[in-house]
Amino acid sequence: MKPVRIRTLFLAAALLAIPSAEANAYPVSGTWTYDNATAAGPAKECGRRQMRFEGLMRYDTETSIPSYRNLSVEKAGNTTYKVVDQVYNMMQWGKLQFTLQVVDDDHIIIRFDKRGETWTLRRCA
According to the model, what pLDDT value does residue 113 have? Predict the structure, then answer.
């Protein structure tokens, strides 16, 4: 096969792997901390254990995969959202499903559907 055809096929495959532009942004933004997560109000200092939401991207210092791309957000109640993220662990692509609940302006709860884990996070000031 000619190099031009190989590059064209590679580019086409790469474009198909990119999530569609129909993904919604997360229902929260900014940096959230795991530390002292149930205390009142925003955290004055965030510490090193953080999750950051930026548009369609989510970054996490507490997991083995540091970045996630949002595929979908579906409202499941007044303050609850069903979220599907795309993950890549340097070997394979996958999807991670979880429920994000906005408790108030300064607190969120994330419940992972398959793992059964629940994390409470607090907004960083």
Answer: 81
Distance between CA atoms of residues 16 and 94, nearest Å: 15
CATH number at residue 86: 2.40.128
Structure tokens at 23: 């993904």
The tally of domains found in the chain comes to 1
Q: How many H helices and E strands in the chain? A: 1, 8
Report the alpha-carbon distance of residue 37 to residue 8 in Å, rounded: 48
Radius of gyration of the chain from Cα atoms? 17
pTM of the model: 0.78
Residue 11 in any domain: the answer is: no
